[in-house]
Amino acid sequence: MATSASRPGFLSRLMPSSGGALFFDLFEQHADRTREAASLLAAMLRGATTDPARQAERVKEVESQGDEITHTVIERLHQTFITPIDRGDIHELISRMDDVLDLIESSSERIWLYEIRKMEPDAVALADVLEKAVEEMGAAIRGLRDLKDRPRLLAHCTEVNRLENEGDALLRRAVAHLFKEGTDPIHVIKWKEIYDYLENAIDRCEDVANVIEGVALEYS
Amino acid sequence: MATSASRPGFLSRLMPSSGGALFFDLFEQHADRTREAASLLAAMLRGATTDPARQAERVKEVESQGDEITHTVIERLHQTFITPIDRGDIHELISRMDDVLDLIESSSERIWLYEIRKMEPDAVALADVLEKAVEEMGAAIRGLRDLKDRPRLLAHCTEVNRLENEGDALLRRAVAHLFKEGTDPIHVIKWKEIYDYLENAIDRCEDVANVIEGVALEYS
Amino acid sequence: MATSASRPGFLSRLMPSSGGALFFDLFEQHADRTREAASLLAAMLRGATTDPARQAERVKEVESQGDEITHTVIERLHQTFITPIDRGDIHELISRMDDVLDLIESSSERIWLYEIRKMEPDAVALADVLEKAVEEMGAAIRGLRDLKDRPRLLAHCTEVNRLENEGDALLRRAVAHLFKEGTDPIHVIKWKEIYDYLENAIDRCEDVANVIEGVALEYS
Fold first, then answer.
1. Which of A124, A209, B156, C143 is close enough to B139 for a disulfide, judged by CB 3.0 to 4.6 Å?
2. C114 Cβ under 8 Å from any chain A Cβ
């Protein structure tokens, strides 16, 4: 005879424990993809890749994996009865995480598409900040699972905020350089767009940190 | 003597049937406006209009009608006690639908404002994809009313996603062309903006499809 | 002996009166900062400032104060049990208000960063509209506190909408001018971005007005 315990579909909709762990698993898997994409992009901007088209393709593959994870989170959100953290926060969190990964992919795509040969030193510095912000964001996400070490989780969020400010200052300098040296408007147009994507990616890391901070406060 | 039945204001706030039908009516009316706007824009980009200023004005008129419908939905949402689908989903759905129509209007306005005389072939291809995406989005919206044929509704959503990918590939090619031929930076600036609007319009169709998919899953 | 009345933390989480007043206080403080920033920006665009770097820095300081207020609102939102208006509306309202202030700051930063010496007359007109829109938005926000004079509150919201339309028409003219006179693509790139920030700032005022309108309707 089938008991309710033998019906995992039914159970997973009701039991917060299993459903909860699933959401945290998916968040961490998504954060891992973002870290991979950020590191591929940084290599590209450091001029460490010989084949930009292939590198951009690899970032695209990682981004597609992230998309699938996001899709699974949203699907599960609609099917799960009791969620470990607020339903709206889960949706907001994975949406903002997905924005970060999308913007990293857009950056690498433009570098390839615009046939950028010589990288701007300012862009390398920005990519470094993005890589660090993604790292700290991932650490904050891993802290969500049990919320035991809240001060440490909040410290990671604060660090993301600090990195966003650092990125902001870097971007201002980069854009000023661009217009001072920029005798070629086409060069200016291309790099302004790449800088915009990099800046937005870092900004969205801050959005993710803000959502996490909110969750940590709510469950305190 | 006045009975509660003679007070439609009171009734419409409580009865899901009438209020529910109203929301679906408004969604479909909005989708019809978007289809009309997309078709006016496509004609413009195919070079089939003799008076771009007048055509842009017509798109603007259709967009204003869409605005009014959106406003009515939000007003009714605040006044209605029981809604046929989740309150937040209704708000998200009509907001994203309105984004699509806004971006179509922005595209046609720029073509007129920038005094574009010769259309880019890539833009025509993008307008075709947008028209199809708007069509599929409309079909998905019509499927929301009774949710009887869920597989068909989801097939329309999947088709919007496929079209968004097609649009993405087209846009990449269009931008690459632009920079390869682009000896005139002003020409590049103008067309990059128009392409951005077209791409964003298609992206927002995908957002609408995602909301609809979520609703279909929630009520399954 | 400690009574619950002597525990303000506990009380402020339960009592809507004190918590409610606090939210309205914070909204009004934020609106005051935005008005200050808009007026500093307008002075900059009228060419009434001798030191653009210092003026942009002052706008940045005001924006940081706004950030802190926003942060406090969101922190309190997570800690407060009963809110005077819908929790989601509070979040949406302060987020959109913060967008307005951010975009004002971005505008002034670009003017300084791009070393703009000669202001465009169209930009002065746009700044005037932005200043008025911010003023009307602030009046609508002040009306939220008791919702006694709802017609007046709604009139302020309608005025923001009218100003947004006026700004739209101005922007269209400004961009047309830019491309007609624009023999220098770098000049076009710089001013298009500043115009975009100004337009977006006015658009976000309309978003704020829409949230307020929604709240006024909900509590009618």
1. B156
2. yes
Contact B192 A190 (CB under 8 A): no
> Cβ separation of A109 and B189 shorter than 8 Å?
no
- Indicate the residue of A176, A182, A217 with minimum beta-carbon distance to C186: A182
Whether the pLDDT of residue B137 is over 50: the answer is: yes
The pLDDT tens digits for C43-64 are 999 988 889 999 999 999 999 9
pLDDT at A11 over 60: no
Dig out the tokens for C78 from the structure. Answer: 């997570």
Residues A141 and A215: their CA atoms lie apart, in Å, by: 11
Mean per-residue pLDDT, C127-155: 94
Q: Which residues have C-beta within 8 Å of that of residue A86, sequence separation ≥ 6?
A: A215, A218
Chains with 3 or more CB pairs under 8 A to chain A: B, C
Task: Give the up-direction half-sphere exposure of residue A18: CA atoms within 13 A in the CB hemisphere.
Answer: 12
Contact C190/A172, CB-based, under 8 Å? no
Other CB atoms within a 10 A radius of the CB of residue B122 amount to 20
Query: Rounded CA gap, A63 and A57, in Å?
Result: 10
Higher pLDDT, A82 or A142: A142
Are C172 and B109 a contacting pair at CB < 8 A? Answer: yes
Q: What is the mean pLDDT of residues B126-138?
A: 97
Chain B: give the shortest CA distance to residue C46, in Å: 26
Q: Distance (Å, rounded) from C-alpha C84 to C-alpha A201? A: 35
pLDDT band at B87 (very low <50, low <70, confident <90, very high): confident
Long-range contacts of range A147-150, CB-CB < 8 Å, 24 or more positions apart? A147/A216, A147/A219, A147/A220, A150/A216, A150/A220
Q: State pLDDT tens for residues C63-78.
A: 999 999 998 998 898 7
Looking at chain A, list the stretches that DSSP marks H as alpha helix, in order from N- to C-terminal side: 8-14, 16-45, 52-79, 87-113, 121-143, 150-181, 185-218
Q: Which two structure tokens, joined as six digits, stand for A13?
A: 């909709």
Please determine, for residue B127, whether its predicted confidence score (pLDDT) is greater than 50. yes
pLDDT band at residue A12, thresholds of 50, 70 and 90? very low
Residue B79 structure tokens: 């006044």
Condensed to tens digits (0 to 9), the pLDDT of residues B201-215 reads 999 999 999 999 988
Q: Which long-range contacts (CB under 8 A, 24 or more apart) does B75-82 make?
A: B75/C217, B76/B19, B76/B22, B76/B23, B76/B26, B78/C214, B78/C217, B78/C218, B79/B12, B79/B13, B79/C217, B80/B12, B80/B13, B80/B19, B81/B13, B81/B14, B81/B19, B82/B14, B82/B15, B82/B16, B82/B19
Model pTM score = 0.83
Contacts of A78 in chain B (CB under 8 A): 214, 217-218
Domains recognised in chain C with CATH numbers: 11-218 (1.20.58.220)
**Closest residue on chain C to A219 (Cα):** C78
The whole-angstrom distance between residue A117's C-alpha and the CA centroid of its chain comes to: 26
Tell me whether 0.85 is exceeded by the ipTM: no
